[in-house]
Amino acid sequence: MLRETVKTLLNNALEERTDLFLIEFSMNPENAISVIIDGDNGVTVDDCVFISRAIEHNIDRDEHDFSLEVASAGATAPLVHVRQYIKNVGRDLELQTTEQALAGTLIEATNTHLTLQWKAREPKPVGKGKVTVEKKAEIAYQDIVEAKVMIKF
After folding, report:
1. Using CA atoms, how far apart are residues 79 and 15, in angstroms rounded to an integer?
2. Is 42 exposed, middle or buried (0-12, 13-18, 19+ CB in 10 A)?
3. How far apart are CA 145 and CA 147, in angstroms?
4. InterPro entries, from UniProt (predicted)?
5. Among 17, 58, 109, 119, whose Cα sits 20 to 30 Å from the Cα of 65?
6. pLDDT tens digits, residue range 62-75?
């Protein structure tokens, strides 16, 4: 019952703040609630506080004993939601598909697939040596095993 109440309160808060979206929700038998969110424009501490209060302030502590943690998806966490790909257009990704590993710049993200672009060294069509060529691949989200944004310093 508490689980359903929390889910309803969480969904209501996310309907109110449409720029935020759920990455992960879990609740263990001891009522330790964990919510991981992301946002189209990133996530601030205030965003986490908003979600936390939307849940915590609507559950009677005398009736239910629980702990609540609301956090943002980490910078090194794999991308799991289409909206995460869309907000990261222009950034470099490393991804593993069902068939190969790729690294390149995310140049497009739609609701069904992404387009990755990278440079590769290939043998010249004629003669010796190699030439740098631009490569592009359209990849359906369902074919992605894992994708991460490459952090550059």
Report:
1. 22
2. exposed
3. 7
4. Ribosome_maturation_RimP, RimP_N, RimP_N_sf
5. 17
6. 899 999 999 998 88
